[in-house]
Amino acid sequence: MTPSLFRVAEVPAEGGVVVLDGAEGRHAGNALRVRPGESIRVGDGRGVVADCVVTTTSPGVVEAEVVTRTDVPRPVPEVTVVQALPKSERSELAVELATEAGADRIIPWQSERCVSRWSGPKVAKGLTKWANAARAAAKQSRRAHEPEIGELVDSAALARYVSEQVAAGARVLILHEEGAVPFAEAVTGTAVSATAQPATAVSDAAESATAVTAGPDGPPRHIVVVVGPEGGVSDTEVDSLTDAGARAVVLGPEVLRTSTAAAVALAALGVLTPRWSDPGTTLVPTEPHTGK
Question: Which of 287, 290, 291, 286 is nearest to 142 (CA)?
């Protein structure tokens, strides 16, 4: 069983002592009731993780000795999610699900058709909520790396970002129910068979797909997934982003909510790329410490 993960500012060297206090100490000592001799895991959210053995506990404070310390690399390819602002009740859910599914970076997008609008004080408030949601979800899912929450962008700024990322070698994919290229093909650079074409793909998609995905086979080192709002990405935005180098792709025959689409795409990327198969980027369960 994977031990509970607690966040610390810095992870000591092996043999050092880590102190959990404040909210983490209360969670460990009061809620989970960890006891001396039990195993816990701590991490700084930046990739450094340590397996520890609890040595002492007191109300709201837990001390543990670092047994092993590991620097976990980020999975490759790196994945950035550009998330159009969902309605308020689903906004943090989108961040939570994307974080649990492995997003490395999440950028909020004020798309033309967003029902939710961030302006003035709402921008800072929204970014704080997203950061808190990402931090909690990263802990819950035992992630070594917390995703970065980027600054809010509008459609013009997003087009500039896409152009910069494409120039740097990234592959930018707009999830679109009328996309002519299947998501898997756009990721891997390998054409899919006609029988595997999603139901929403147009009839000539198979003829044009190979030309669209021409180039070096396999996924790049950075993939950007653009998720539109409840009302969809406007034609103007699609044109602007594709002119900047993005591709409109269809993830599958189902039409997904904006709050769940990124998580589904990330799960597909985990299978289509080495993100889930590289053991060096995955935290493994540890044997419970018996104190013997």
Answer: 286
pLDDT tens digit sequence for 212-222: 333 455 679 99
Which pLDDT tens digit goes with each residue over 40-99? Answer: 999 999 999 999 999 999 999 999 999 999 999 999 999 999 999 999 889 999 999 999
The predicted-structure confidence for 246-260, as pLDDT tens digits, reads as follows 999 999 998 899 999
Domains belonging to the chain, first-starting first, are: 5-71 (2.40.240.20), 78-272 (3.40.1280.10)
By CB atoms closer than 10 A (0-12, 13-18, 19+), residue 78 is middle
Nearest to 86 by CA among 237, 226, 229: 229
CA nearest 30: which of 15, 39, 20, 18? 20
